[in-house]
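We close this part of the discussion by returning to an individual protein. The encoding preserves chain order, so positions in sequence and tokens coincide. The sequence in question and its structure tokens are set out directly beneath this paragraph:

===
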Amino acid sequence: MNGIDRILRHSRITLRNYAPISTPPFPILFINSICNRKCEQQGPDLEQYRQLYDYVCRLGATREEGRYGATVEPMLQWAKSRTAAAPTQVVPCRAGVLNAVVYSNDDVSVCENHEPLGNLGERTFGEIWNSPEADALRKSIAAKACYCTNEVFLWPSITFRPVQLVRAMAGAKVWRGVEPLSASESVRVATDEQALAGDRERLIGIQTSVGKS
């Protein structure tokens, strides 16, 4: 594990000197990480979420057509929406087997939704990773004592396991084409701050009226 410890030390230096990442030039839609641990937030209305996701897919249909990797998002959306509806692990989670979490303060865990298991300033990665506490947490996760919609842990649990990959591809119907939005369905969005402020006020008004209905 000495090699891993050297890599982690380098990674911590890199993380502390990261450059800001610019916003992607295309729409991204996600269910904020819903879990049954350390989380108080509840997810959106799933039917409304599916309708919004369908709109986003059609909005970006031309851009996504033929793009390598365009099947990734449909599979993740399938897994997350199914998990939120269940609510339980739909894709058996492999956190602690395929993933590790190392925080900027050197804390180590198998998952972002669980408490740290140790600190690299006090023990090596190998000592933490192979500890009885880590083994117990892995068994708990495998027994589906927890669930979440965190993509960081969902995606490896899908893509590195052939049965789950085929299952997600079939569930998301990744071969199915998406019809682009028609001209009448597209909405032009203003980019100047004054117009955006007006859009925000209208959006707040819509949300308020929906909440009262």
In short: The chain has a mean pLDDT of 77. The longest strand covers residues 107-109. The chain is about 50% helix and 5% strand.
